[in-house]
Amino acid sequence: MSGTWGFTRGLLKNPLGALSLILTLLIVIGGLFAPLIAPYDPLQQDILARLSGPTAQHWLGTDQFGRDVLSRILHGIRASLSVAGLSVIIALLIGGFLGVSAAYYGSLYDRLVMRVMDVFLAFPIILLAIGIIAMLGPNQSNTAIAIGIVYIPIFARLVRGPALVLRESEYVHAAQALGASTMRIINRHLLPNLTSVILVQSTLSLSTAILVEASLSFLGLGTQPPTPSLGLMLSEGRAYLTLSPWTSVFSGLAILVASLGFNLLGDVLRDALDPRLRGR
Amino acid sequence: MFAYTVRRLLDLVLVMFGVSVLVFLMIRLIPGDAVQIMLGANTEITPDRLEALREKLGLNKSLPLQYWDWLAGVARGDLGQSVWTGAPIRGEILARLPLTLELTALSLVLGVLLSIPVGILTAYWRNSTGEYVVRLVAIAGVTVPSFWLGTLFIYLSFKLWPGFPAIGYVPLAEDPTGHFSRLLFPILSLSLPLLAGLSRLLRSTLLDILNQDYIRTARAKGLAERVVMYKHALRNALIPLVTVIGIQAGYLFGGAIVVEQVFALPGMGRLIVGAINERNYPLVQGTILLVTAGFVFINLLVDLAYAYLDPRVEYA
Questions:
Q1: What pTM, to 2 d.p., does this model score?
Q2: What's the pLDDT score for residue B98?
């Protein structure tokens, strides 16, 4: 664990690393403990206090039904983190498996898998996600599945390259010669060497998945009302923009902060874990 | 170069075959009875109507035969008919596509053009403050939701200049000034995030290049810094920029679909969201197929341009 602590201290010395850690911690704690921290029930209406700006009672104001914007944003972050997190897990497990197995087994299987990945990569991201949601029906878990499927080829390609190099490395040949099973080679010798690329890509993917989820919710194709969702709040707030811009402004800001935090973190991690890419 | 072009064309055919199969399977893979879901969205379900729609969509035949019929139609430019209006899908898409393409293309051009001066200027700002500020601003720019940016633009223009037509659409032929003033904010919302990403890429490429020996030689022989930058450094630094343009165009198109909704623009965004809400699957299918084909083609052009611009690329 001292290695992890030393690593974190190193990140904190870099101003951007410190900022990224603070932002992601804020977002993760806010989302995780939303039901505990939120000052109000996100669905509780106070019609007399509707569309108010920031006040002592409602720090970020209220929406068109008088619901507390801060509480809805915290619950929205929770929804957006769970969709983004689930989609990255789906992409990582399936994409990682496909990439490593393609590299390990090679030949026809490799070519077939990577061809199929190319086909998925040919679609513009949002359009493929929209197509999958059109099939499955719009709701929160289908959004996670759709984004997960869209990200599978990214992870498959990401791990295939380094896995190909590792497969030909002397210690893998040595392990094979000693009679190690395929599973053991993949688990013990390939995966541990891939953790840093996977960690960086997962963090960056969380950042973009938050944006894609928000876009889909904004279009009405993601999380469905009345569940609080950042994209949906931004969209609904637009009808009252001239009267009270707070709902739209703060929900959009929350999307930005969440996505920015993870993206910065991924960027700083990449620098720390792969010195060759420093300053890119 | 010729062999490379042929090889890339073969790749394209393979990828498009895969894309067409996936898009074709879309309706067929819908959990439950797609026909029932489609009908249920608008009318009462009766066995007769179910059978009629099934017949109309050709769902009674075997799967490979269905695919063949569909593909043959697509090859003739027939993407099928809208389930509800019976109008040809091709017409509906072609009526909406130009606006979205215009939005995407103008945003791409603006983003690329602006990224060159910004990339060059920031490449000269090399102390640690510059390093941090450029990174933070670039990453913030990449992660800012364009539909939020658009919403902010609408609010600000309402406060600062209430008469400005921030929302809505006017055809180009009717009123060119009104047309472009209504596209100003959508284009800015899409191109600012692009500018952030591209100028960071250009800056980091420039920094690598400015450290190379041939740049030192150019400076040592007394060339003006302007000549070193534009003739020696920038030209090479633009090559990586070209390679990401194909991918960026795809992102921008997706962004445009969302941003159109912010500004009430009648483009592909409204069409596809409407189609999903009405369960008009053939329309969703046609849109995805057509747009994806467009981007596969753009990426082919980008690859060929890249191979042409950078002689180091192996054609093998």
A1: 0.90
A2: 93
The size of the A-B interface in CB pairs under 8 A is: 150
Q: Give yes or no for A211 touching B (CB within 8 A).
A: yes
CB-closest option in B15, B139, B254 to A122:
B15
- Nearest residue to B151 (alpha-carbon basis) of B251, B258, B248, B249: B258
Q: What pLDDT, on a 0 to 100 scale, did the predictor assign at position A279?
A: 45
* 3-class SS letters over chain B: CHHHHHHHHHHHHHHHHHHHHHHHHHHHCCCCCHHHHHHHCCCCCCHHHHHHHHHHHCCCCCHHHHHHHHHHHHHCCCCCECCCCCCEHHHHHHHHHHHHHHHHHHHHHHHHHHHHHHHHHHHCCCCHHHHHHHHHHHHHHHHCCHHHHHHHHHHHHHHHCCCCCCCCCCCCCCCHHHHHHHHHHHHHHHHHHHHHHHHHHHHHHHHHHHCCHHHHHHHHCCCCHHHHHHHHHHHHHHHHHHHHHHHHHHHHHHHHHHHHHHCCCCCHHHHHHHHHHCCCHHHHHHHHHHHHHHHHHHHHHHHHHHHHHCCCCCCC
What's CA B266's distance to the chain center, in Å? 17
CA–CA distance from A99 to each of A112, A121, A164 (Å)? 11, 14, 9
pLDDT band at residue A277 using 50, 70 and 90 as cut-offs: low
Tell me the average pLDDT across A199-213: 95
Quick one: average pLDDT of B3-9? 87
Is the pLDDT assigned to residue A275 strictly greater than 70? no
Q: Is the pLDDT assigned to residue B92 strictly greater than 70?
A: yes
Identify the burial level of B76 via C-beta atoms within 10 angstroms of its C-beta, where 0-12 means exposed, 13-18 middle and 19 or more buried.
exposed
Q: What does the pLDDT read at residue B308?
A: 82
Residue-averaged pLDDT of chain B: 87
Amino acid at A205: S
pLDDT (tens digit per residue) in B226-242: 888 888 888 888 888 88
Q: How far is B245 from chain A (nearest CA, A)?
A: 13
Question: What six digits make up the tokens of A76?
Answer: 């929205």
Residues of chain A contacting B148 with CB distance shorter than 8 Å: 234, 248, 252-253, 255-256
- pLDDT tens-digit profile of A117-170? 999 999 999 999 999 998 888 889 999 999 999 999 999 999 998 898 888 888
B-contacting residues in A 216-255 (Cβ below 8 Å): 218-221, 231, 234-235, 237-238, 241-242, 245, 248-249, 252-253, 255
Cα–Cα distance for residue pair B161/B145, rounded to 1 Å: 24
